Amino acid sequence: MRVTGSVVVIAVLDGGSGADLARRLTSAGAVGVLIADQRVGIAEDLATELDRPGCRVVGVCGDVRRPSDVAALVDTAEKHLGPIDLFCVAGPDGERIVSLGDLPDHLDLERLAELVALVGEAIGEVVVPAQRRPVEDVAVV
Fold this sequence. Notes:
Layout: E1 7-12, H1 19-27, E2 32-37, H2 42-50, E3 56-61, H3 67-80, E4 86-91, E5 94-99, H4 109-126
Parallel strand pairs: 1-2, 1-4, 2-3
Antiparallel strand pairs: 4-5
């Protein structure tokens, strides 16, 4: 995975943290990073901390589990940073990085659907499904 010269989106899920990932990617040579967190102010504060010449960092509030928010993140990143190279999901059980190199360059419904599918897979990999409790036998009196 090539980070140098890349534009990266980091979407943070409940219980996750994008701070370490954002620091690693900016240090590895990303030229632009958009951080999205569901909690208001978190991504914005991190972006203020990491933004520097040669690597613009933008923070927004958003929930990557909603396709409309994924579309908004793509629009915002492309508007402020350029075409996205990597889309990352940071969850409570790790992180997943998706390369967008195989998707068409322009944002259309087909590309958005593919991206939403990839993000959905990434979410599934970084969030352990809730443990189902077995139904206990109930004695009938």
